Amino acid sequence: MKYFIGIVILLFGIYIMTDLALKTRYTRKRFQKGKNKSYKF
Q: What sign has the CA pseudo-torsion 16, 20, 21, 22?
């Protein structure tokens, strides 16, 4: 049971990391067209 919970947390963490990476990449591409000074990362 301990291993199952660990695997679930690991997979969930990987999913969040990839989701954030894809979102930041997508927003960066979008913001490159128009220079936005208020956009902070």
A: positive
Record the pTM: 0.51
**In sequence order, what are the residues at sequence separation of 6 or more whose Cβ sits closer than 8 angstroms to the Cβ of residue 39?**
31
How far is residue 13's CA from residue 7's CA, in Å, rounded to a whole number? 10
As separate numbers, helices (DSSP H) first and strands (DSSP E) second, the chain gives 1, 0
For residues 24 and 4, what is the distance between their CA atoms, to the nearest angstrom? 30
Per residue in 1-41, pLDDT tens? 889 999 999 999 999 999 988 888 777 666 655 555 555 54
